[in-house]
Each structure stands twice: as structure tokens, then as C-alpha cells.
Specification:
Elements (H helix, E strand, L loop, with lengths): L2 E6 L2 E8 L4 E5 L10 H7 L4 E5 L16 H14 L5 E6 L1 H12 L4 E7 L4 H4 L3 H9 L5 H6 L4 H9 L12 H7 L6 H6 L21 E6 L7 H11 L3 E5 L6 H4 L1 H12 L14 E3 L2
Parallel strand pairs: 3-4, 3-5, 5-6, 6-7, 7-8, 8-9
Antiparallel strand pairs: 1-2, 2-4
InterPro entries: AB_hydrolase_1, AB_hydrolase_fold
GO molecular function: hydrolase activity
Keywords: Hydrolase
């Protein structure tokens, strides 16, 4: 897929697009980039119109000095979907991307065919982990002066990525992600949004009604960034139509077990997978 540019309030946002058919939009996690979805995009472009977006501050998109809030990202997502004329779109996210999928679907449920939420970030799924403890502490420290100029050494960047992988991630190609973490100023978007993440607590109590787009959840059981145990409790309120736990995966399941993730996205985007809640039977918990 070739890189394209979308203008968001004067800032260039990079995205990939390939294929024709029912649209699928992939949204990466904080600290990630659109390339994490390469396997899914390659597999699905033959049957669907596939989009993968770099969030503001990540990948090849602009890295402004400020503006990193949940509201800004939701406004970006809404503007992108509107500008591309995406209708009846299947939204697929990882971590923060999953949170944004849910927030968009809450405001525009009639425009969403289905949701595939991988390791969804909420206040409850973040707080029990080492990443959650660090986020709580760092919210109370003025990080901006450091984050603007800091460059992580290569070995440290490698450890950051390795922390996101489970047992099955040993052969995952991570060079591109490691390189991003070593670029000057790449910590700024993450540092700036930390104070706003508690707002995602609203997702912990959200209970979709029968008209809400069907949800699939996927958790890497070895996730050290977010808690899969808390994710199981989140499933009790989200009531996903399909729930998959991948025992050997961590935070980057789409790279660690691309076939399983692709299968769930393909089903969710299909005419059967996108049936509304009232048309489906009881939630299905899947074995990997």
C-alpha cells in the first residue's frame, strides 16, 4: 500500500489505502504506527477497502508541539472517516486505537458495521500493570521539557518493544517500531496524553444496547501493558459477540498471531459477522 496524506486542521496525517469493497479502518496503539497492520491489510485488500492510519504524533504523521488529547484524536478520526466518505465501516483498533473505536461508535453507531477491539485501553485495563503504575506516576511529573528532546538509545527502544510481546513474539519483525522510538521527540505525544487517559474510565461502565454495532474482543493473555484479567471483566459489560484470548500473545497480537486476528476481522466485516445484537445468539467465547 502506498502512503497518502490527509489534512487534519492544517497537519499532515499519513495513511495507507488499498482494495475495494466494504471499508475496514485499522487504528494503532500509542507508541505504534500503521505498519503493525501490514499482515491484515495485505490479506484483506482483495475483498475490502482497507485503510491504516498513523495517529497524530506517530509514524509518518505530523508531530506538533501540543494538542494530544482524547478529544483531538476523536476529532481526527471523525474527520478522516468523513473526508474519505466511509460508510458502514468496520473499525479495528489496538489499545488506544480500540478506545477510539468505541468512542466513535458511541457518537456515530449508525455508521459502524462492526468493532474489533484488540487489548482495549480503559482506566481499569491499564491501572493494574507496571505501565499503569508508571502512567499514574508520570502524570504528576512535568515531562514535556524532557520528552521534547529525548532520544532513546537503540537497546532501550528494543526493551520497550520486547515488553509488548508475548511468548509468540520472538520472530516478529520489530525494526521499524524500534527505529521510531529512537527518534528525537517521539516520547512527546505519549507524555502529553497521559493526563487525559483517565477520561477513558467512561468505557469501563459502558454497556451497549441491542442496537449497538457488534463487538469482537481479542486479548493477548501475556499482555504486560494492559491487564487481560481486567479485560475479561470489561467483556462482562461490553458483551462482545465474539471474544478471543490468545495465550502466547502480548500487546501486539496482530503481529504475533496475524492469522488469528485477520480471521476475526474478516468475519466481523462480513455480512454475517455484522448482524446486530438482536439478530445474534449468545456471546461466543472462542478458543485460539
Amino acid at each position: 500500500m502506498s502512503a497518502l496524506i490527509f489534512d487534519f486542521e492544517g497537519l499532515p496525517i499519513t495513511y495507507d489505502h488499498a482494495g475495494v469493497g466494504a471499508p475496514i479502518l485499522f487504528l494503532h496503539n500509542l507508541g505504534g504506527e500503521r505498519s503493525i497492520w501490514a499482515a491484515q491489510a495485505d490479506a484483506l485488500k482483495a475483498t475490502n477497502s482497507v485503510y491504516a492510519l498513523d495517529w497524530l504524533g506517530y509514524g509518518d504523521s505530523a508531530v506538533p508541539d501540543d494538542g494530544y488529547t482524547v478529544d483531538t484524536y476523536l476529532r481526527l478520526l471523525t474527520s478522516f472517516i468523513d473526508s474519505q466518505g466511509l460508510r458502514d465501516v468496520t473499525l479495528v483498533g489496538n489499545c488506544f486505537g480500540s478506545a477510539m473505536c468505541l468512542l466513535y461508535a458511541q457518537q456515530s453507531p449508525d455508521n459502524v458495521r462492526a468493532l474489533v477491539l484488540i487489548n482495549p485501553l480503559t482506566a481499569a485495563t491499564l491501572s493494574p500493570t507496571r505501565a499503569g503504575w508508571a502512567a499514574w506516576l508520570l502524570r504528576h511529573i512535568p515531562l514535556r521539557p524532557i520528552a521534547v528532546s529525548l532520544q532513546l538509545p537503540g537497546p532501550i527502544a528494543g526493551l520497550v518493544i520486547r515488553e509488548q510481546l508475548g511468548q509468540s513474539g520472538g520472530e516478529v519483525p520489530t525494526a521499524a517500531l524500534r527505529r521510531r522510538w529512537t527518534e528525537k521527540g517521539r516520547l512527546l505525544p505519549l507524555a502529553e496524553i497521559l493526563p487525559d487517559l483517565p477520561r477513558l474510565a467512561v468505557l469501563d461502565t459502558f454497556e451497549p444496547d441491542s442496537s449497538f454495532p457488534p463487538i469482537t474482543t481479542i486479548w493477548g493473555q501475556q499482555n504486560r501493558v494492559l491487564s487481560s484479567t481486567a479485560g475479561a471483566r470489561l467483556n462482562a459489560t461490553l458483551k462482545p459477540r465474539r471474544a478471543l484470548t490468545l495465550p502466547a500473545c502480548g500487546h501486539l497480537a496482530m503481529m504475533e498471531d496475524p492469522e488469528s486476528v485477520t480471521e476475526q476481522v474478516r468475519f466481523a466485516a462480513s455480512s454475517i459477522g455484522s448482524l446486530s445484537y438482536q439478530d445474534k445468539e449468545a456471546p461466543l467465547t472462542l478458543d485460539p
